[in-house]
Amino acid sequence: MANKDELVKAARNPWWQGAAAVALVALVVTFALGGFKQAKSTSKPLPQYSAGHRYQGGAMAVTPLRAWVARYKPGGQVDRFDPGKLYLVLQVEIENRTPRSFNGFGYPREDVILVSATREPIKPDLLLMSDDHSVAADLHPRLKQRVDLVWNLPKNYVHAPRQTWGVFARDYKAKAYINDEGAWLQGKPAAKFLIPVQDLRDRAVAP
User: Fold this and answer.
1) 169, exposed or middle or buried, with CB in 10 Å at 0-12, 13-18, 19+?
2) DSSP string of 41-95?
């Protein structure tokens, strides 16, 4: 342990005096700027879209059209072996805004998500083309295509009259990887859809 004389000598050292002065100034500035107060959120609320309104992002443009709950998948009928099954469907119009085709289970499944009651993002279990109910394959550039995003629901699902979905941004990075190869990378949440949910659970066959 340093004795009293050593402490006095250190205190008179110009270098230590300067360091102490800098630290004191930094402390005063930090306090004046509220650095010790709880940080306030500076994030802005996400833009909200209703049915029929188009969200235009980097890789995709998405227009939510309608949503429903049913006991069958689009184009199907009630499963007689498991009649308690439920499905939540969001029908959207997607336009691929990139110069190349991409698979429906790529960007759409990763970027258009259901927001749960606990605010957790849930990816769709299935993507089907709305016209023939086939599994969504390639979505071609600049071609608007209707797609049904399907979520499997618990048997005792409580129907909500309005549901929230989220959309992630996806922008092109010219040097996305170590080899300088470019790619469309998913970014932060960009928008949310608030869509009325039609209850079709009383129907045994798809309309």
Assistant:
1) middle
2) P-PPPPPEE-TTPPEE-SSEEEEEEEEEEESS-TT-B--TT-TT-EEEEEEEEEE
C-alpha to C-alpha distance for 35 and 23, rounded to whole angstroms: 15
**Is residue 96 one of the residues assigned to a domain?**
yes
Note whether 61 and 134 are same-domain residues. yes
Angle between helices 4-11 and 14-32 (to 10 degrees): 70
What is the structure's pLDDT at 164? Answer: 95
Say if 41 falls within a structural domain. no
- Structural domain that includes position 7: 1-34
Q: Give the model's confidence band at 16: pLDDT under 50 very low, under 70 low, under 90 confident, else very high.
A: very low
Q: What is the pTM of this model?
A: 0.74
